[in-house]
Amino acid sequence: MMTNLFSVFDPSSSIFNLSLNWMSTFLGLLLIPSAYWLMPSRWHIFWNSILMTLHKEFKTLLGPSGHSGSTFIFVSLFSLILFNNFMGLFPYIFTSTSHLTLTLTLALPLWLCFMLYGWINHTQHMFTHLVPQGTPAVLMPFMVCIETISNIIRPGTLAVRLAANMIAGHLLLTLLGNTGPSLSFMIVSILLIGQIALLVLESAVAIIQSYVFAVLSTLYSSEVN
Amino acid sequence: MPQMAPIGWLSLFIIFSLTFILFSMMNYYSTIPQSPKSQILKKSQTNSMNWKW
Prior knowledge:
The complex is a heterodimer. By secondary structure, chain A is mainly α. Chain A has one domain (7-224). Chain A contains nine helices and two strands, in the order H-E-E-H-H-H-H-H-H-H-H. A two-stranded antiparallel sheet of chain A has the order 1-2. In chain B, 42% of the residues lie in helices and 0% in strands. Chain B contains one helix and no strands.
């Protein structure tokens, strides 16, 4: 029964049994303004203002140890996840970020790189990070244990948080919609209004989740140095 | 799951990493960072003359 419930997520856009669903990941690439022209258009200015706001925010988060250009990867990570999340809300477009394949692909290499760099180059610093500031001496062994575990599950939580948030919204909308044909006209209009409200919530969640992912990876990277 | 069968996870991993790199490239080339503008604008002396060769 569980596979049946989630089978609404099996997309049917397949040509010659070759599933082209994952091509929706590239949709965001078409929406980012291209840099062919000298004078910025309105879309250019809008996108640039978003990126610059994010850049200032991440630079603050990274603190004094951030090098020039260190916010760049997180800003582009935000844009990738934002477009994938948001495009998935439109009908017939596959939400690639709702699958662990994509989210783990993004989270695991990032976390692994931070950990390898930190542990190999700044071993002392990484060890001191295992004990937060101001813990009583009695609690230190337990804090080390807890911090180690929380460190290890970080890529998992990053990936699963994004995928689960995306799936939850879509699942709710689908379940509500599946009851539609068996209802009277009045209740169907209430259902539609509810679904539209949920769609607005989902668009907010899409933007927020992409922001959370980017901010958390910024924080994880700032802990290393 | 049917859409996971033809392409394996490794190729999907490579595709998504390349997509991330492509996104990074697009964002890098389309950002126009603001250089800090000076507060005092030095306006040099301009004589308005009629245009001639």
